[in-house]
Amino acid sequence: MTLTHSPVADVPVSDVDPFSHEVLEDPLPMHEELREAGPVVHLSRYDVFAVARYAEVHAALVDWQRFQSAAGVGLSNFRTEEPWRPPSLLLEADPPRHDAPRRVLGAVLGPRSLRRLRDAWSADAEQLVDAVLAEGTEFDAVPTLAQAFPLRVFPDAVGIGQDGRENLLPYGDHAFNAFGPSNDLVAKGTHRVPELSGWVGEQCAREALSGDGFGAAIWAAADRGEITPQQAPLMVRSLLTAGVDTTVHALSAILYAFATHPDQWARLVADPSLARGAFDEAVRWESPVQTFFRTTTTDVRIGDAVVPEGHKVLMFLAAANRDPRRWTDPDRFDLGRDPSGHVGFGMGLHQCVGQHVARLEAEAVLTALARRVRSIELAGPPRRHHNNTLRAWDSLPVRLGVV
Amino acid sequence: MLTVEQSSRTRRSGVDRTTVRVVGKTPVADGVVTLTLAAPDGGRLPDWTPGAHVDLTLDNGLTRQYSLCGDRWDAHTYRVGVLLEPTSRGGSRHVHESLAPGHVVGLGGPRNAFPLVPAESYLFVAGGIGITPLLPMIAQAELLGADWRLLYGGRQRSSMAFLDELAVHGDRVLVRPQDEFGLLDLPGFLGAPRAGTPVYGCGPGPLLSALERACLGWPARALHTERFVAAERGAPVRTTAFEVELHRSGRTVTVTPDVSVLEAISAAGVEVLSSCRQGTCGTCETTVLAGQPDHRDSLLDDDARAAGDCMYPCVSRSSSDRLVLDL
After folding, report:
1. Does residue B144 share a domain with residue B103?
2. How far is CA A238 from CA A61, A118, A242, A288, in A?
3. Quick check: is B237 in a domain?
4. Does a structural domain hold residue B295?
5. Mind telling me how many Å the CA of A225 is from chain B's nearest CA?
6. Is B75's CB within 8 Å of A339's CB?
7. Disulfide check for A39: which of A258, A303, A338, B34 has CB 3.0–4.6 Å away?
8. Which tens digits make up the pLDDT trace of A229-276?
């Protein structure tokens, strides 16, 4: 990273490309450099400002008044550029338009609404783990567990049909790539956009959804007038976009964490009630969603500098989650830590509306594994999957010791 | 230009989150004052949406609900309007006669049982102090370019608050004090029943009953009302310590007024995962096995509170001497 003179007074400048393959392979050194460079850094390559310290990231996340989302939460500025698909009513919206969709989805995915799923998902996780272990104790944990469990329970919970579910992961992967610059990662997904968007769009219609899922609950809210009938399909789309890849990568993050920290797995086996906190510690440690952008609605002072109105600000959630100003020994994956307050799910009124779903899925899988598995270790070199927004694994070969 | 504040909130105690300081008190009509409230440390207050109310626990121990009627683009203050009720049992009288800038009051919420649904046109009907929740709704309708009108009644013009703020909207607002115009002409204001135009009403019971009758021919769910009554709410909130028994851990902790339940539990070595620590995200939901929680969150509606089976210990406390939690 080269630090040069800044176009805005008192802002260090970096020419690093956070979306290059080199950085995506291992972003931690860049996170540290940006954190230590100052409270805000100008990224000259994209003419955007970046925040990487916990305090500044947290402050930008909660301040929807001055850091807006409706101009897009990727590099693209919707004030001047055409989005690749109609903007999300949740992620890419500000109050007041954000209010009704958020209120409805918050209720549909709230902890009280999920109680009915807990027992079923625990049973699903036990069946999956039993079936996997019956096949062998050495396998690639990405397809076999991290992808298999969310793909088993989440599409059913939303209520979509059986056909075409293989489209969910590539669609989500492209959507999260599209928050970055139009680099090769975006280019590789572009040719499938018409096909995948078409399939996703079909799944969002009322008649395509079962009567008892999250999708039907969204349509029922439209029938009650809480949202408009035009909003309902876009809200189902949000579930299908943001509810699969994120959980898959969060599960592979925690499996990788345990495979490389056998003492922590032993703690979980001894006390499975640690599963819930362990998942959030893994989300802090690995930050499956690494970054989001905001756009300033006014001149905003950050540290000693002023970020002018209308500029993109890149928030490094992952760097904030390992900021030593906030966390003791931040690089350590530690079940004894209280990870509360991490920004891996964001914070404030855009905080991940599906976080309780993700926790329930993870708790089910970890509890089922802890029942039968005494040790997890890497059985070969893991391989990263590069995405402009997500920190992910393509392959995670593991060897399990079972009782 | 404003400054990004350092986010000390995330580590702040729940008690700080559940109090606000009176920073302004202004008479705005006969018998009506507005209170301007701010966080004791000047930080951001929890987000809210039009139609939301807060519970304020006054320094005489009474808790009252007030609609937020300020500007939510100002994250640092809340505004509420308070009518002096002639039959006041201590709430509004205390606000009018004793409460002063500098005083600290307890805060619950914000919660919203009266949300504005998306539409291209709205009809608003306010009686007296019932104008308060409608003010932010009107601001929102204006922001969205929706077509809207307000019928605003009161005993006499001098008792009707916020007429100056409403004057900018010209003939969208019909001001109809009873001593000049008689009872509100609801059928005339509403016009023919039609789909796609929600009707929002807030005010005294007789007005809302009349509005319900006037809306009988309207589509189901067209009418949204909030009754504005100075109801006593449960037991007075306790300001003294209480005990929390952690059932599974077999431990009991004492929660003193200066710490949150979450902090007290954590100090006893029992970790409860949390996130926002403002009673808005739901992460710290905890099962209540016995005792009466004093709910301060923004999540549970009245039905869920009545069920009494869970609470959010980042902000919520206890009305009873002892709470038993499934921890």
Report:
1. no
2. 20, 22, 6, 17
3. no
4. yes
5. 7
6. no
7. A303
8. 999 999 999 999 999 999 999 999 999 999 999 999 999 999 999 999
The string of pLDDT tens digits covering residues A149-203 is 999 999 999 999 999 999 999 999 999 999 999 999 999 999 999 999 999 999 9
Shared domain check, B212 and B247 = no
Please give the backbone phi and psi of residue A240, each rounded to the nearest 5 degrees, phi first.
-75, -25
Is B250:B225 a contact under the CB 8 Å cutoff? no
Distance from CA of A398 to the nearest CA of B (A): 29
Is the Cβ–Cβ distance between B54 and B81 less than 8 Å? Answer: no
Q: What is the CATH number of the domain that holds B307?
A: 3.10.20.30
CATH number at residue B199: 3.40.50.80
CA dist B180 and B2 (Å) reads: 46
- B218-260 pLDDT per residue, tens: 999 999 999 755 444 444 567 899 999 999 999 999 999 889 9
DSSP state of B238: P
Q: How far apart are CA A17 and CA A8, in angstroms?
A: 19
How open is the CA angle B151-B154-B157, to the nearest 5 degrees? Answer: 100
Residue type present at position A53: R
* CA dist., res. A178 & res. A27, Å (int): 19
CA distance B263 to B247: 17
Q: Two tokens at A13?
A: 């400048």
Inter-chain residue contact B7 with A63, CB threshold 8 Å: no
Instruction: Identify the domain containing residue B220 by its residue range.
Output: 121-227
Residue B232 tokens, joined = 């006593």
Mean pLDDT lowest among A212-216, A366-370, B290-294: B290-294
How many beta-carbon contacts under 8 Å exist across A and B? 107
- The answer, for B281 touching chain A at a CB cutoff of 8 Å, is yes
pLDDT (tens digit, 9 = 90+) per residue, A23-57?
999 999 999 999 999 999 999 999 999 999 999 99
Q: Which residues contact B274 (CB under 8 A, 6 or more apart)?
A: A340, A341, B262, B283, B284, B314
What residues in A contact B9, CB-CB < 8 Å?
62
Are the C-beta atoms of A283 and A173 separated by less than 8 Å? no
Number of domains in chain B: 3
DSSP codes of every residue in B60-112: TS-EEEEEB-S-TT-TTEEEEEEE--TT-SSHHHHHHHT--TT-EEEEEEEE-
Q: Is residue B6 part of a domain?
A: no
Whether residues B129 and B196 fall in one domain: yes
Pick the last residue of a domain from B192, B227, B262.
Answer: B227
Q: Which fold has domain A3-402?
A: Cytochrome p450 (1.10.630)
**pLDDT over threshold 70, residue B16:** no
- CA gap B80, B70 in Å, rounded: 7
Q: Which of B4, B47, B118 has the CB atom closest to A56's CB atom?
A: B4
Using an 8 Å CB-CB cutoff, list chain B residues near A100. Answer: 115-118
Q: Which of A56, A112, A326, A340 to mutate to test the interface with B (most CBs of B within 10 A)?
A: A340
- Do B149 and B208 sit in the same domain of this protein? yes
Residue B2, domain member (yes or no): no
Q: Are residues B158 and B76 in the same domain?
A: no
Two tokens, residue A128: 């999956």
Q: Is B283 on the interface with A (CB under 8 A)?
A: yes
Distance separating alpha carbons of residues B219 and B187, to the nearest angstrom:
15
Sign of CA dihedral B102, B108, B112, B114: negative
Check which CATH number belongs to the domain holding B60 and give it.
2.40.30.10
**Cβ separation B118–A349 shorter than 8 A:** no
Whether the ω angle into residue B110 lies within 30 degrees of 0, i.e. cis, is yes
B304 and chain A in contact, CB less than 8 A: yes
CA distance linking residue B25 with residue B30, whole number of Å? 14
DSSP H or E stretch at residue A128: helix A111-135
